[in-house]
């Protein structure tokens, strides 16, 4: 073979070998181990090589330094041989980390401002730079600044881009699910109701405020009753609404204020008077008194008829003995007999002593007893206490004799005494609000100490009668407010005399009546121009706030369009009349379940909407982390070179 042919043969072999190498390079695939290394490197922000080296060094066959060198060389070769695939794999690892840590960093709840995203990117980049750096801590730190700078720029850009797409999808989903769900609130209506509800406690989480609202609605309140801010919001709607909206508010507030006041009146009447609560209080007491008087009179007559014609020396002796003690006592008895149309019973003997003209009956003995009872009462009222005591002693002497003769008369007398005492207690109850709470406490404790339920009932009935008079005199709102004020005298008196086992229910009725009356007065009452104008301006701002929030968190197109539309319609037209009426409907709704369903909708489409929104935010967090890590991985060699230059310039060895 000639030299030329030999050279041609060698050239053909070289060409064939090169072609074979090129074909092998083109068909070569990254190993599964290298893929895992790169995903791990991205997921751990550059610390996977050290973690794996640490695990391998547990074997006695390899040192940590050798294992770390091999891991880093493998990662470096994979990046050189498969640059694009390496970027994707490290980025995928970063996505996994971003998704996993999104709940911990507020990815689904905290507004993703540019400053916050830049800070997160700087932390991720700096951590990645430190993790992928080589050498000691000082040398690794030189790798941090440039990586942090890249993360600071890359993370906000990627996050906002991904977030805009995600929120656009979320906005479309929101509209679609509301459209296909019958009864679903329009978003401006929901935003406005949420805004007003949140004002009840601006510092508490909305879910906590809503739970409290639902509980209070179940107990009879409206959202409009729950705070000054909700009353003023309802007043603003009333001032701004069309006739239809005004009628909804007026009819609801007037009817509920009247109904709650009547409920309070009935509760107090029942609590104070018991079974006769539905009748006129004063008439019921008077009827009972008349009935009992008649029954008592009949009972006396039966006792006297049963002993008709009988004479009782015991009565003669006690009456004559008392009359003989003083001329005054004799005259008291004589006058009482004369008043009752009876013949005189005393005569004066020649020696000046007294005697009876006849032996006395049981009825005549009772008349003499009543003579001294009346005299005792006159003396007490005039302040003659000594005389009152003397008259009382004479009365007791006669009573003891009469009771021993006739137990039936004793029972009848006790019944009449109770009637009189109950009547006095009733009169005291009617005058009770003219006294201080301390005086009332003493009076009521004295009544309780007597151990007679009839006296307590009579006293409470008198209080109920006075309350009814006050309400009929036009003081409905004033009385309800006083009774609901724990520092007011009327409230303190009520707590003293009201049956304790039903006091809480009565207080709840009073407080509700006062609250509803206050709402009615604020919303439908006199001028409060400054407050009303402020609330008219605030109406619909829930929608504006929602649009502003969307803009701040990256959802640009839809909120810009809505804000522009709002400006065209002017601020006073943020809600349409129909939407305003729907907001009004919620503020005066008595249905707790309707409010719960509307503001915490758990229907399938609403759940889907919320899940898509949440997923979009998590994907935004994961994608931004993954892309940042991918970019850092792609630029690791140039970054390392730049860091080395920085190390040289700084003199770090």
Helix run count? 30
Count of strand segments: 2
Please give the share of residues in helix: over 70%
User: If you average the pLDDT, what whole number results?
Assistant: 75
- Radius of gyration equals 49 Å
Q: Given the helix and strand composition, which structural class is it?
A: mainly alpha
Spatial strand sequence of the major β-sheet: 1-2
Strand residues, percent: under 5%
Q: Unreliable segments (pLDDT under 50, ≥5 consecutive)?
A: 106-111, 172-183, 277-281, 563-573, 603-609, 639-653
Largest sheet: 2 strands, antiparallel
The best one-word shape is rod-shaped
Offer a few descriptive terms.
1% strand; 30 helices; disordered C terminus; mainly alpha; rod-shaped; 653 residues
Secondary structure blueprint with pairings:
Elements: H1 3-27, H2 32-43, H3 48-56, H4 64-81, H5 83-101, H6 114-132, H7 137-141, H8 144-179, H9 187-198, H10 206-218, H11 228-240, H12 243-273, H13 281-306, H14 313-325, H15 327-339, E1 346-348, E2 354-356, H16 362-382, H17 385-405, H18 407-430, H19 437-449, H20 453-472, H21 476-484, H22 489-497, H23 503-524, H24 529-538, H25 541-552, H26 557-569, H27 577-587, H28 592-599, H29 604-634, H30 636-650
Antiparallel strand pairs: 1-2
Helix pairs in contact: 2-5, 3-4, 4-5, 5-29, 6-8, 6-29, 8-29, 9-25, 9-27, 10-28, 11-12, 11-23, 11-24, 12-20, 12-23, 12-27, 13-18, 14-15, 14-17, 15-16, 16-17, 17-18, 18-20, 19-22, 21-22, 21-23, 25-26
């Amino acid at each position: 073979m000639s030299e030329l042919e030999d050279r041609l043969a060698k050239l053909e072999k070289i060409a064939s070998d090169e072609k074979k190498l090129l074909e092998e390079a083109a068909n070569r695939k990254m190993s599964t181990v290298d893929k895992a290394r790169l995903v791990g490197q991205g997921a751990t922000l550059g610390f996977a090589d050290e973690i794996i080296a640490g695990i391998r060094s547990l074997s006695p066959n390899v040192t940590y330094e050798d294992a770390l060198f091999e891991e880093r060389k493998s990662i470096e070769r994979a990046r050189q041989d498969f640059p694009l695939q390496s970027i994707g794999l490290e980025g995928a690892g970063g996505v996994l980390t971003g998704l996993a840590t999104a709940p911990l960093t507020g990815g689904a709840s905290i507004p993703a401002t540019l400053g916050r995203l830049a800070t997160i990117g700087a932390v991720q980049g700096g951590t990645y730079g430190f993790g992928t750096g080589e050498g000691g801590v000082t040398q690794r730190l030189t790798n941090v600044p440039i990586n942090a700078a890249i993360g600071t720029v890359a993370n906000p850009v990627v996050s906002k881009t991904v977030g805009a797409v995600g929120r656009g999808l979320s906005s479309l989903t929101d509209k679609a699910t509301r459209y296909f769900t019958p009864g679903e609130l329009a978003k401006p209506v929901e935003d406005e109701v949420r805004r007003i509800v949140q004002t009840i406690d601006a510092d508490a989480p909305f879910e906590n405020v809503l739970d409290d609202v639902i509980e209070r609605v179940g107990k009879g309140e409206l959202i409009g009753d729950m705070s000054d801010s909700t009353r003023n919001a309802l007043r603003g709607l009333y001032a701004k609404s069309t006739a239809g909206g005004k009628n909804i508010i007026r009819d609801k507030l007037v009817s509920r204020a009247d109904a709650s006041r009547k409920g309070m009146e009935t509760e107090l009447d029942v609590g104070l008077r018991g079974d006769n609560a539905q009748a006129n209080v004063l008439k019921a007491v008077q009827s009972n008194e008349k009935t009992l008087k008649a029954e008592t009179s009949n009972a006396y007559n039966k006792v006297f008829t049963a002993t008709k014609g009988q004479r009782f020396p015991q009565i003669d002796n006690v009456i004559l003995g008392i009359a003989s003690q003083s001329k005054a006592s004799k005259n008291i008895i004589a006058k009482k007999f004369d008043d009752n149309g009876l013949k005189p019973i005393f005569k004066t003997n020649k020696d000046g002593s007294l005697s009876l003209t006849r032996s006395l009956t049981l009825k005549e003995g009772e008349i003499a007893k009543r003579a001294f009872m009346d005299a005792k009462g006159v003396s007490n009222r005039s302040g003659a206490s000594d005389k009152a005591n003397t008259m009382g002693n004479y009365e007791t002497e006669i009573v003891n004799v009469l009771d021993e003769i006739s137990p039936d008369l004793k029972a009848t007398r006790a019944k009449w005494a109770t009637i009189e005492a109950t009547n006095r207690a009733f009169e005291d109850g009617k005058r009770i609000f003219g006294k201080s709470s301390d005086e009332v406490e003493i009076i009521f404790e004295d009544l309780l100490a007597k151990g007679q339920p009839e006296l307590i009932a009579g006293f409470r009935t008198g209080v109920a009668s006075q309350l009814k008079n006050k309400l009929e005199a036009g003081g409905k709102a004033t009385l309800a407010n006083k009774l609901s004020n724990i520092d007011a005298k009327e409230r303190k008196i009520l707590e003293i005399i009201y049956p304790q086992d039903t006091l809480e229910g009565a207080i709840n009725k009073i407080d509700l009546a006062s609250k509803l009356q206050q709402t009615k007065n604020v919303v439908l009452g006199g001028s409060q121009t400054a407050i009303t104008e402020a609330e008219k301006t605030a109406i619909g701002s829930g929608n504006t706030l929602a649009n502003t929030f969307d803009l701040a968190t990256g959802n640009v197109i839809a909120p810009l369009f809505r804000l522009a539309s709002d400006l065209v319609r002017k601020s006073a037209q943020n809600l349409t009349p129909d939407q305003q009426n729907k907001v009004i409907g919620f503020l005066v709704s008595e249905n707790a379940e309707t409010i719960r369903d509307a503001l915490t909708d758990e229907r399938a489409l609403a759940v889907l909407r919320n899940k898509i929104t949440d997923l979009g935010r998590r994907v935004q967090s994961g994608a931004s982390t993954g892309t940042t890590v991918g970019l850092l991985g792609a630029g690791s060699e140039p970054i390392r070179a730049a860091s080395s230059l920085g190390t040289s310039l700084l003199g770090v060895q």
